[in-house]
Amino acid sequence: QLLKNLNAYKFHEKLIVYDLGMNSHQLEQININFPKVIIEKFNFDEYPEFVGERDDHGLLGFYAWKPNIVVETLEKYKMKVIWLDSANLIDWKFVFVLIVLSSKHFFSPISAGKVIDFTHEKTLESLEFPFNKTNKRNLTGGFNAFDWNHKKSIEIANLWKDFSNIQEVIFPKDITKRTHRWDQSILTLLIYKYNYFGYLPKMKKVF
Questions:
Q1: CA nearest neighbour of 192 among 146, 143, 147, 127
Q2: Rounded distance, CA 78 to CA 140, Å?
Q3: Are 104 and 146 in contact (CB under 8 A)?
Q4: Which residues of the chain have pLDDT under 70?
Q5: What is the spatial distance between Cα 198 and Cα 194, in angstroms, rounded to a whole number?
Q6: pLDDT at 174
Q7: Cβ burial, residue 170 (10 Å; 0-12/13-18/19+)
Q8: Which of 28, 57, 82, 97 matches a 20 to 30 Å C-alpha distance to 204?
């Protein structure tokens, strides 16, 4: 669904799908139906063991693979990179995302809740997050964008990756989705803590 959608609008220069464990039939169908799509296989062996493990609910690696994929893609292709979870769809207004990315060098729309609502205190402590910013709105983990040609954007992407590869930071003990949002929580903290990009548009209905 997402690949058909992205091909309909053609805002991208390259379209990359990361294989986190697809079977041969799924890979074949992508190659047949979307021959221009680049398929990259994520090598779990290069990262901490927990990144490739599933919990009792089937959750893979607490999403720690996502920031690793973003950084891998930035380093390999050396261009602007936009991550979209596979449940996303875009329309013509996506052009505004490209404008914001070119101007701000980072983008992620706001998500539900505030930092204090969905971030475990141990993660806040690990990132030395200012208490006076805990009422900031969460950003979106499933839709974010970085710019290879901007030093601060790359710095945030690497910090996101590095903290996500520490299990006790991305997944402190005794947390649930109601109290913590894994990679999303870490990215949100980093953006507000360093404030490299200034004001970011927040209207999710548009973006």
A1: 127
A2: 23
A3: no
A4: 176-178, 204-207
A5: 9
A6: 74
A7: buried
A8: 57
